[in-house]
Specification:
Length: 177
């Protein structure tokens, strides 16, 4: 929902569909292959609960991560960009002030990613060493501390750029690469 006070960045559902397919495949694989093999062995009945629970727990964990990402998309406002840090169910909202934003760009890989690079990791997380280390690791792996699947559309990209320029007072703009 977009209002005059904020702009929610539209996130892509492509990753959700991929993870849903992987979850279904994981559960089916366990039911079709692992369960009969376990039952064929002598101690199979003792391992049956484990063989059924492990894929379900993995599926639940992945679903919760995706759900957290979809329920808490990045939001632009006059203060900065509100993101869900560490997109797990235990994650928390983090405000990135506009003066902490070094660069925002769209990365074209297999799909579009919105990349957000910040100036000072330690200051952003309030000096918390574990959170700062996780953000630095994300920056080393992906090129930015924060990245999001972005719906691929020129019109959406233009609207996002206008919103970034508006809320940042013209200090930050969307780079396209």
């Amino acid at each position: 929902m977009h209002t005059a006070d904020e702009y929610r960045i539209p996130v892509s559902l492509s990753r959700v569909r991929t993870i849903q397919a992987l979850l279904v495949a994981c559960i089916l694989l366990s039911l079709v292959t692992l369960v009969p093999m376990t039952l064929a062995s002598g101690a199979g009945y003792a391992l049956l609960p484990v063989m059924l629970c492990v894929p379900l727990l993995v599926a639940l964990y992945l679903f919760r991560r995706v759900e957290a990402r979809l329920r808490h998309p990045p939001v632009l406002n006059i203060e900065g960009i509100r993101v869900r840090a560490f997109d797990s169910p235990g994650g928390y909202d983090l405000m990135i002030p506009w003066d902490q934003v070094r660069r925002i760009w769209l990365l074209q890989a297999n799909s579009r990613y919105l990349m957000i690079q910040i100036c000072d990791t330690d200051e952003l997380v309030g000096g918390h060493p574990l959170h700062a280390a996780r953000l630095r690791a994300s920056a080393a792996r992906h090129g930015a501390e924060f990245w999001f699947d972005f719906r691929d559309s020129i019109a959406l990209s233009d609207r996002l750029d206008q919103a970034i320029r508006h809320f940042s007072g013209g200090r930050v703009h969307l780079e396209r690469g």
